[in-house]
Write a structure and sequence with these properties.
The protein is mainly alpha-helical and 171 residues long. It contains 5 helices and 2 strands; from the N terminus they run ααααββα. The protein has a two-stranded antiparallel sheet with strand order 1-2. α1 packs antiparallel against α2 and α4 packs antiparallel against α5. The protein is elongated. The relative contact order is 0.11.
Length: 171
């Protein structure tokens, strides 16, 4: 297998970026869904872990997004065509765009609280503006909805994987 994509398949670079992104995004999602405490407050330590992992992976995630848009989506195999191929292709692009939205809305949400983004205990990134509740609410809504799109897209993606493995058996 090649490092780069072929006209009808993914190369090792795409496969590696896919799996690294999947691990990072699912980890961040799991931690992010645990930020709110049972009494409705926020767990500061969980929020810091969530943002620390996200910022640590920031460049890799943007590389993943750029790679897919630059390389494009491989074309279908002879047995792949029509609606299911298009559903899979656009599900991939929706997932990539939703990750990009997360990468923008996350830092803006923290900064709109007038806070710094802490990356473990290594360093922090100061915000460019003071507390702004309107922006905070907007960024939070965007961030939550984008996370939901990622989960729904991931479920669709896993359904496609199952379809290809169990029914099509086309690798």
């Amino acid at each position: 297998m090649r490092l780069s994509d072929t006209p009808t398949g993914y190369g090792w670079t795409s496969i590696a970026l896919h799996w690294l992104t999947a691990i990072i995004v699912l980890t961040i999602w799991f931690i992010g869904s645990s930020i709110q405490t049972p009494d409705g407050g926020l767990s500061e330590s969980t929020l810091r872990l969530h943002t620390s992992i996200a910022i640590s992976a920031y460049a890799l995630l943007w590389l993943r997004i750029a790679w897919r848009f630059v390389k494009g989506h491989p074309g279908p195999l002879p047995t792949q065509a029509g609606l299911f191929y298009l559903l899979g292709k656009y599900t991939h692009y929706i997932l990539i765009v939703a990750i990009g939205i997360q990468l923008i809305s996350g830092p803006l949400m923290v900064w709109s609280m007038g806070a710094e983004i802490h990356v473990f205990d290594w360093f922090s990134i100061p915000g460019p503006f003071d507390m702004n509740m309107g922006m905070l609410n907007t960024m939070h809504t965007i961030h939550v909805w984008s996370a939901r799109v990622i989960i729904i897209g991931t479920i669709l993606h896993l359904g496609g994987v199952y379809k290809h493995a169990a029914f099509n058996q086309d690798g």
